[in-house]
Amino acid sequence: MKMKKSKVLLAGLATAALALTGCSSNGGGEGDGEGTGEGGDISIALVSKGFQHQFWQSVKQGAEEEAEAQGVSITFDGPAAETQVDSQLQMLQTAIDNRPDAIGYAALDPKACIPLFEQAKAADIPVVQFDAACESDYGNYLAATDGVAAGAVAAEHMAEAIGGEGKVGIVGHSQINSTGVERRDGFVEYLEENFPDIEIVDIQYGDGDHLKSADIAKAMLSAHPDLAGLYGTNEGSAIGIVNAANELGLEQGKVAIVGFDSGSAQIEAIKNGDMLGAVTQDPKSIGKITVQSALALINGEEVEEFTDTGSFWYDAENIDSEEIQAMIYE
Amino acid sequence: MSEAKTAAPKGSLNWKSWIQQGLAVGTLVLLFIFFSIMNPNFMQWSNISGILLATAGIGIMALGTTFVIATGGIDLSIGTGSTLAAVMTGVFAVNMGLPAWLGVLLGIASGALMGFINGFNVAFLRIPPFIATLAMMMVAQGLGLVLSGVAPIYFTEISWFSGIALGELIPGLPNGVLIMFVLAILAWVVLSRTKFGRIDLAIGSNEEATRLSGISTKRWTVLIYSVAGVFTAIAGIVMASRLSSAQPQMGVGLELQAIAAVIIGGTSLMGGRASIIGTVIGALIMSVLINGLRIMGVQSEWQFVASGVVIAIAVWFDSLRNRGSST
Question: Which residues in chain B have Cβ-Cβ distances shorter than 8 Å to A268?
């Protein structure tokens, strides 16, 4: 009785397996017939730092648009939080195991990725990088915003708004990953070099979390009632500062608030004057150039080692311009 | 027989929890004095009200969790669960365009449903609370992302929504804080003056005996987790109100802060002993500590270390007292 049952099961499994392989070979055949010469079989696996923030959704959009235009297929994956270095590495591992034609990677941690890059090299998979680089010798092609330059842009406008003197605080989003570090250092270095009368009184990190950043900003404003400006190094940090000012009932302009990236809350704050302005990157270009570079590598063409996708200041005056509108996202 | 059972732990509960609360209050007062000396700006009302508002979300979550921990259980799903409830509120009130008050009620109902499932899994399917609620924590995080379309849902169209946390029925006191205190009073009455509270603690001190005395402990457990789910949802809505939006990535990690607040407040992880006042004070200790360190300009890294040390000391006191009473 028992034997019979297991035999039936086996037979069933075998039929299922046959059916499946039949299907897939069929599908493969069709693909071969159509795809030759068009590059329709080229696949690029993008492993991003995340997908929850609008910024990454824009990168994804830019990459998808370019992929469609070029007739290649892409996958876009990323961990749930930008602290999950571990799960991001697993995604990269999976991508390598899938043997795509190229991989695009945005390193959450510049060192942890090195062994996996060696694997990709051994497997002969070309790698391009976006947003933040891995410190490996392989795949040295990066499309990203120059974070130090972007931080300096924020500092320049902050200094102008507060008249070149006073106390300034920074609400950072990370003291570990390169964007957080560069945007902070670019800001700090610019002020130290050009405006000795501006004192940076405090730098704290809110992980880009809106509530945590708001609480940090409130504490800074309480500790330094004469604070002239606050700088938030990403969307969540910036919105946190704006919320803090609103919750404390500060009058507009008492503290100059400079932010980073966009998102509808930040756009709204800039339009209604709660916020002085912000530095935006060009996330769609990051996605687009990543796909372009990957394709170039696949085709054996030359690729620049670093492409600065640019950082741009926007405020109430130029926010509606076409140039800015193409870069910011709701 | 059942009377004697409930009477005995209650009597010993009182002086025990008084000591723990005394310790907790003492810690809170010490922290206040210390930070005021370090930076006089600490004592300004705007900062105090900032501390209270920062406490509201975690505090409300912690109140609900107190009931769960009192049974000897745990609820890890409160952090991401609060996010899911906020997202659900957004889905109903914004995406589906239902009346906003109904959206808020349905958001709270979804919290109750999460709690119900937790309770059911714990009581009837016999999944250990740690695992059952860990699973819910992941499910809630995933569903929150899916339902929100991985983007914030903004409540800016609903004019009164931000008033839930930020309005001031009592001038100078944000409503979110008021909600926390009202819920705390409610929870205190329920825990110390009602059948629900008695059974809650009885399950925690001896579930088997409670069941043998003719109480359907399984059903009560489901009810207790459901009530905790309601608190979780309210916490999520209060936090969403502060942001005028449901942020799908908010809430991760808050569960541990809320649980720490409960334990600092003198509720026993083993169950059978709970204190609502303690929970509120525990939550306040956590946020006073963080705020004070921020005001002093202590590096973020050291703030984590300091919070960890405070939790360890608080629970160490707790275990010392347990050892003392058993000998």
Answer: 156
Chain A closest-CA separation from residue B235 CA (Å): 13
- Nearest CB to B39 within list A57, A211, A223: A223
Is the model more confident about B6 or about A229?
A229
Yes or no, beta carbons of A52 and B145 under 8 Å apart: yes
Q: Which of A182, A164, A159, A158 is nearest to A172 (CA)?
A: A182
- State how far residue B47 is from chain A, nearest Cα, in angstroms: 6
ipTM above 0.95, yes or no: no
Q: Is B322 on the interface with A (CB under 8 A)?
A: no
What does the H/E/C string look like for chain A? CHHHHHHHHHHHHHHHHHHHHHHHHHHHHHHHHHHCCCCCCCEEEEECCCCCCHHHHHHHHHHHHHHHHHCCEEEEECCCCCCCHHHHHHHHHHHHHCCCCEEEECCCCCCCCHHHHHHHHHCCCCEEEECCCCCCCCCCCEEECCHHHHHHHHHHHHHHHCCCCEEEEEEECCCCCHHHHHHHHHHHHHHHHHCCCEEEEEEEECCCCHHHHHHHHHHHHHHCCCEEEEEECCHHHHHHHHHHHHHHCCCCCCCEEEEECCCHHHHHHHHCCCCCEEEEECHHHHHHHHHHHHHHHHCCCCCCCEEECCEEEEECCCCCCHHHHCCCCC
Please give the domain boundaries of chain A with CATH numbers for all domains: 43-145+283-299 (3.40.50.2300), 147-281 (3.40.50.2300)
Please measure the distance between the N-terminal and C-terminal CA atoms of chain B and give it in whole angstroms. Answer: 26
With an 8 Å Cβ cutoff, are A218 and B50 in contact? yes
Rounded to an integer, what is the distance from CA B83 to the centroid of its chain?
A: 14
In this complex, do A225 and B41 lie within 8 Å of one another by their Cβ atoms?
A: yes
pLDDT tens sequence across B93-138? 999 999 999 999 999 999 999 999 999 999 999 999 999 999 999 9
